[in-house]
């Protein structure tokens, strides 16, 4: 009897094990594509998360313009701005804004959608051919008032910043991050948007990925999730924080598109290229300046390097902070050491005693929206003294005697004169941005520094690549092409824009090095290598590399065509076709770029150059005459932008307006005195004008910038001979 009982249990266990093995081994077919199922399907099982999400900023990211969601006062209210009086009204449940239209005339526009809920709400109108635009008036939900997000500047209908212009186009600028499963569906032939989305607002599947496989597995009778697909959603909870951060990053970063169709199951760098710490986006020390949306800041922080993720501080569904006050930080940081006057030197409970006030200072965007800097930095008023960067101390302490010098002295008294991050990378990047020759060695060292974020190393590589044409910097840039970090590899590629090999050996070596990037596992790197190679006088040396180039260029074209409503995409396509020798297609793309954004500078210059190559000189000069007006306008609006002055100077030169060219180029050199390119062009122009004294002075400054450059010394010798042909 006992043996039968043992045999029975054994058979049962064997059958159970076999059944479990079969259950585990059985999987959904390979290649099954998940589809979107909608939030109501998710709510059936995840009620707690659903309740937290409702009324969150994600839930209210975008909604139809109905009484339930419209917060602004549409009771025939008016707002005047530079002579244009906009009127907000409603008829029943429909809302309207009467304002200046794309033709310059006053017209009434129906509000179709609303964006946001706090501290401001914006309103959208759909114009012709599916083009949705952000109306010019904004509702301040705190002060209950209408205002203009750009109060100090008038924008006419021809300006891209006018509410009907490309910079205020919802389809391209906003929709992807205010909807779920967004598709632009732009038809180039008819200039029409056939946009679609699964859901208005940032819903469950925007963060977790399309849910059909997950639902299928949850409704099955299997004990296990699928061995091939896991639980069918993005894995956001693993030990590695990367997946979660890259799920949030597409909408919380300043980036450009690499490829369409991103889902949370994908890698960030396959679809986007993160902006570096560039001087028009960040302060030299990496603090936020323009609206950069968190991720680039966070990647500078020690918290990022230690594996901290968004949900360590934020509830992933309500988006609220997990704790109030300093308790949020003392989850990890010892309260007895840091949340005491001996550390913060302020009265307990005061604003100055709050961790975030010192380590996450705010900057206000769109007039009313203060946002915290997520680089989580130590206040450095001493850098304010050196670099002019902001600091947390002087955001609060603003009395005449409370200067940055005063704040720096206080910090020295409290914490001592030494800083563990000295020299701060901000000092190095600032010197590099200025092209200071003495900064090269420090930048090279910074590319190897592990105690800074990858965005800092990548920025250092980018500066070496674009501003330091020396053998030492070239070695570092070439080595960076093999970095494990995609951001660093992308930055290194900047060193090969317009590159001209000095020898055949160099061309062969670098050509092979770049060709390796054509099979990089990052789509961003692959397509950027392909774009650069298409413009260089070298080609991949093997059939497999040529095939890889064709594949990468196909990916590159696909992305540009996805953003076919953007003038810049067609300009890039035009450049690509011109590089490939297809002048007809190049001309078509440049013409399309001009048509899409007639008031934007750039495309006319490219088209003029193309036409001039074909002997169509008169057409080229007519285009340049139109272009110079746009560039002169831009230079007036941005008088401190050295590159604009340089481009304007070149254009004046091509139009034969040499004195104006010299003035613009001289200003470019004054704004960016360390730029050898700017100084070289001014030197050559002085030579053409036979202004020998100015030319010799200019080439002297050029040699000071790059003492080892043999070309510059040869130019100096030629100028000396021309200035003094008799050898006197």
UniProtKB/TrEMBL annotation:
PANTHER family: C-TYPE POLYHEME CYTOCHROME OMCC, DISSIMILATORY SULFITE REDUCTASE SIRA. InterPro entries: ARM-like, ARM-type_fold, Cyt_c-552/4, Multihaem_cyt_sf, Multiheme_Cytochr_ET, Paired_CXXCH_1, TPR-like_helical_dom_sf, TPR_rpt. Residues 306-336 form the Doubled CXXCH motif domain. Pfam families: Cytochrome_C554, Paired_CXXCH_1, TPR_16. Keywords: Signal, TPR repeat. Residues 41-64, 170-209 form the Cytochrome c-552/4 domain. PROSITE patterns: TPR (PS50005), TPR_REGION (PS50293). TPR repeats lie at residues 567-600, 642-675, 676-709. This is Photosystem I assembly protein Ycf3.
